[in-house]
Structure formats: C-alpha cells, structure tokens
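Predict structure. Chain length: 296.
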Amino acid sequence: MKRPILIAVIGYIIGIIVGLYIQKSIVLLYFFITAIYLIYKYLNKKQIKKLKIFSIKRYFRYIKIYINLKVLILLVISSILSNTIIILKNKDYQKIYENLSIQENIELTGKIVSDKEERQYNNKYKILVKYNNKKLKFYIATKKQIDLQYGDTVKLSGIYIKPEIQRNYKGFNYQQYLKQLKIYGTIKCEKIDILSKNQGNNVFLLSNKISNIIKSNVRGVLNDEYASILLGLVLGDKTYIDQSIQENFKNANMAHILAVSGMHVTYMILGITIILKNIIGKKLTNIVSIIILLLY
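Prediction complete.
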C-alpha cells in the first residue's frame, strides 16, 4: 500500500466532515454502503440483468481507481476514529450547554487570553476557566469602562448566553463557528474583579505587549480607517476594520491578506534577511528570524 499516511488523513477528514455537518455516526453510512455492495453481488450471482445504476464503468470510465482491501480498511478505521471523537465532543458540548443554561447566575474564575475587542455597547474578551474539572473557553462581555489585559486573572459573575444555531437555510451557524474556536458561549458580566495581573505564558505576554505597542503607534500616526487596514495587513487584527471594507476584500478574493498566513511569514523572513544578513551573518540571521517569528 502506497502513501498510508495520506490515506489515513483522507479518512480522518471524511470522519470529521460527517461528524461536523451531518452529526451522525459514520458507521451507519458504512453499513449502508456494505448492504448496497452485498445486494449488488447477490444480483450478479443470480445472473439477473444488470441495472445501469450499478454500472461502475458508466460513472468512472475515464478514471482509474486503485483501491484494495488494505486501503479500504485504513480509510474506514481512520474515519470512524475521527468521527467518533467529533460525535463524543458534540455530546460533551450539548451537556455543558444544558448545565450552563439552567443556571440563573454563573460565578467563575479564569484568565483573560485575548486582547480587548471594542463593541458598540461593551468590550469583549476570551477567558479560560476551569469548569467541572475541565478547561473551557468563553467570550465575556463587560462594561465599556472595564479595561482588562491579556494574562489578567479575574473573578466574574454573570448570565450565560448559549450560542445560536442556524435558523434559516444556508444561514450562519454561530454555535458551529464557536465550536471550531473551542468556545462554549458568551457570559454577560454583571460583576468582575481583577485578582492578579500578568499571569500568562511569558512568551505570549511579551508578544502581546509588542503587539499593543505597534497598535498604539499605528493609531497615533494614521486615522482610524487606514490604521485598521494596516493592522489587519500586518497583525491579522480585523477587529476595527469596517464591515464594508472586509466585504470588498472578500469580493476581490483577497480576504487572506487580512489574516496572518504564509505570505506574512515569507515577508517577515525576507525583511529580516535583507536587513541583517550582511550585518550579523547568515547563521545568526536565521536564529534571529526564528525568535522573531515565534513572537510574531
């Protein structure tokens, strides 16, 4: 069997897709496919005239497919594994949704793990908390006058807001979107106290401070519109970019420019190399590039 890792990855992806979007066990699908195959073999043995719908050549006459038993077994095992993980994770999400939704007021202690996102009526942060011996992430909505920083440990009380599911055909599924970010919903804070500051990972704390300095300097030099676009291009921060501008980037198939991607990494490496190569040499330049990229 050639490229077993590729085959396993393909099967793993299939299991994830079925678990996320169909939200059913893939085992049922395999039982259905097996039943169809056995019926087809039975009809062949009985020498009944073949139905055109069973003619593989009719659909794949121009495609050569090399599939043997080992490939099928690996695909099935890897897809069942990933599908089972997704199904169990979905059940875990639903259980936590139910437990949180029945509580009128929630009291939690956790650590801020994101920068502030300014909204019209409140500020928004991500927080990592320990709930029922599990580490969970939530969005928290605070009053505008409350200013938190990455690494702050806080104690809060508030109302839990369960993320909405898709209500209309082809509508946005906010619950599914938050699942991909491993976030369990939003807590609207009624009271919040800062217990300690700068409790995060030292590398993240340093990179966050550098990021905030860059943001502050850019906003001090440029007006809001240009500053928001530049920060989106450099740091992938789309928080302050107007929605119409984001739509223009999407329509021009350039939305990837507003997210940190391989292109950004390439530009960083090229810039550092051009500036430092002739000053400190190639070897030291590579070391400096790695350090700066880790911070970035």
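Summary: The chain has a mean pLDDT of 83.
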